[in-house]
Amino acid sequence: MTVRRVVPNIRAEGGAEAVRESRAFYGLLGLQEVMDHGWIMTLGSPSDPTAQVSFMTHDKTAPVTPDLSVEVDDVDAAYEALRESGAEIVHPLRDEEWGVRRFFVRDPNGRVINVLTHRG
Description:
By secondary structure, this protein is of the alpha+beta class. The protein has two helices and eight strands; from the N terminus they run βαββββαβββ. It has helices at residues 15-27, 75-85, and strands spanning 3-11, 32-36, 40-44, 52-56, 68-72, 89-95, 100-106, 112-118. It comes from Streptomyces antibioticus.
């Protein structure tokens, strides 16, 4: 299995206004918007597409907001390996309408990790 990128997810406690403020603040550091679904916005480096950070008001389909996203080349293999290890699956493996297949798992530190693959 190959890791394609790791993205910290920052909970935008102030909602949409906090997301707008984050876009402006991190824009001063050179990060640019690469995705905005309304409930999650991702900023990235124009020179390195794997250098990203996301700001979330909530998660659209899951009961919790993940702390970190890890994109892998084979999410099904990752799911099986983590499930077989006895790790706590927080959100089941599923295809999402915005083009990813993902699940959430709790790491040994109690953090919720969004493990995903982009479809198609």
